[in-house]
């Protein structure tokens, strides 16, 4: 998937049917297993969902970090216990790794809403009061380590007016890697 992404073939968070077929052929040559396009799309969706869980822990929660050697999220025992108590179905993330977290971040970040104003379609719309301020701050990465979790806040802006530094957190991370 990543190789096809680098070729610019990921369009609106998915690939064309032809590209999925190519991915299926490449996987069958490597793994000697046949996958349907629906199976490949399902695997990609599950990978994106797992990446999103790791991403949210590393970039949106304080007290969590990333270990690039073991490909796991790190936190103190107290912080894990607190988080697991609030998210019991996700308790396995403390031991589970995601070896290609950096590649997934590069590939999925552009198509996944990641800021604190990200909205689900099931959520009610924002109140359209133009005098309210909207927080446009985004976490950014330490350019020395693309998987560090140091967050820097950008200034607030009035609704409809974005001030300097309002680029998305994903764009900042990808640019800092090159």
UniProtKB/TrEMBL annotation:
Gene: LOC105178993
PANTHER family attached to this UniProt entry: L10-INTERACTING MYB DOMAIN-CONTAINING PROTEIN-LIKE, PTHR47584
Span list, region Disordered: 140-178
Organism: Sesamum indicum
InterPro entries membership: LIMYB (IPR045026), Myb/SANT-like_dom (IPR024752)
Protein name: L10-interacting MYB domain-containing protein-like
Pfam families in UniProt: Myb_DNA-bind_3 (PF12776)
UniProt domain Myb/SANT-like: residue ranges: 1-82
Bias kind Polar residues: ranges: 168-178
């Amino acid at each position: 998937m990543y190789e096809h992404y680098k070729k610019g073939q990921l369009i609106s968070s998915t690939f064309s049917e032809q590209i999925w077929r190519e991915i299926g052929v490449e996987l069958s040559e490597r793994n000697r297993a046949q996958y349907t396009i629906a199976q490949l799309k399902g695997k990609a969706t599950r990978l994106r969902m797992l990446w999103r869980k790791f991403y949210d822990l590393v970039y949106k929660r304080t007290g969590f970090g990333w270990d690039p050697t073991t490909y796991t999220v790190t936190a103190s025992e107290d912080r894990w216990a607190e988080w697991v108590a609030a998210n019991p179905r996700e308790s396995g993330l403390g031991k589970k790794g995601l070896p290609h977290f950096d590649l997934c971040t590069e590939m999925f970040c552009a198509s996944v809403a990641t800021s604190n104003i990200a909205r689900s379609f099931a959520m009610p719309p924002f109140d359209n009061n133009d005098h309210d301020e909207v927080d446009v701050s985004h976490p950014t990465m330490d350019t020395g380590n693309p998987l560090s979790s140091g967050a820097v806040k950008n200034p607030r802006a009035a609704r409809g007016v974005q001030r300097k530094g309002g680029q998305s957190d994903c764009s900042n991370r990808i640019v800092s890697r090159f």
